[in-house]
Amino acid sequence: MLEIKNPETKERIKKQLSAIGTLPSVPQIITEVSALLDNERTSANDLCKVISKDQAIVAKILAVANSPLYGLPRRVSTIEFAVVIIGFEHIKNILVALSLVDAFKNRNTSTWNHTNYWLHSLITATAAKRIADDLRYPKSGEVFTAGLLHDLGLAVLNRYMNSDFLKIYNLVNEQQLRHINAEEQILEFTHQDIAEFLLEKWNFPPYIIEAVLYHHKPSLAENGKVLSSLIHLADYMTQKLQIGSFEWDNNYEFDENVIDILGFGNIDYLEGFIQSYEPLFKSNLENLIENKLM
C-alpha cells in the first residue's frame, strides 16, 4: 500500500527537483488563456484568437473533442465551435493538460515508449471524463485534466532523472517488481509525488493535485475520493481491457474501495460496467490513431 508522504520526504523531493534547472515553465499559451478567462469581458472570439496561434494544439483539441469517449453529441470542426459547445472552462482544461504533456515530450527509446505513454494518457483522460459524465459527476472537465496529467511524473522521471529511471527499469526486470514498488525502493517516493511537486509549483487547484497524487490508491485521498477514483478506474480499465495500456501499469493493483466510493454496489456489477465500455475504448483508440495523436 502507498503511504502518505511525511514532510521530510516532500522536502527531499522538492530539493531534488528544484536542482533541475531545465524544467519547463507553464507554456505561454496557458498564461494567455488564463488571463483572458479572468476577464469577464472576454468573448469566444478573443479566446479563439489566442488558441489559434498554435495550430498543433488546435488539432489536438479538435481530435479530443471528437473522440468517441469524450462524448459530445455532434462533430466539432472548428475551434470556434469547440469553444461554444464545450465552454470556456472545459476548453481551458483540455488546453492546459495537452500543453503540459507536450512540454515534457520525450523520444522513444529501448526503455521508454513515449507513444504508448501519450496514448495511454489520452485514453485515460477521455475515458475518465466519459465515466464521470455517465455517473453524473458534475465537473467532468476537471476529470479530463487530472486524467491526462496522472502519469506526468513518469515523463519527468524519464527525462530529468534518467539515471534513477534506468535503475527502476532494471530493478523491475531483475526482480519482477511492480514499477511503483521499484520507484519506492530506488527513490523512496513515486512518480505521483513528482507530479504533486510540479502541479503545486504551477498553482494547480488542490483537487487536481490530490487526484493525481492518489490515482493509484484513491481511498487515501482526503477531500476528493470521487475524482481520484474516476482516474483510478479509467487507468485500471486500460489494463483490464488491454486498450491504451502502458507498461508502467503492469500488474495494476485495483483499489476495491472504489466500488463503494463510486456507488457500484459490488464487484460483479463493476465488471459488467467495465466490459460495456470496450467498444468505446476500441473506437477511441482508432480515432486517436487516425488523427495521429498517438
UniProtKB/TrEMBL annotation:
Q: Which domain of life is it from?
A: Bacteria
Regions that span the bilayer:
none
Which CDD domains does the record cross-reference, listed alphabetically?
HDc (cd00077)
Do you know which InterPro entries this protein is assigned to?
HD/PDEase_dom, HDOD, RNase_Y/CdgJ
Q: What is the name attached to this protein's record? A: HDOD domain-containing protein
Domain called HDOD: residue spans? 23-218
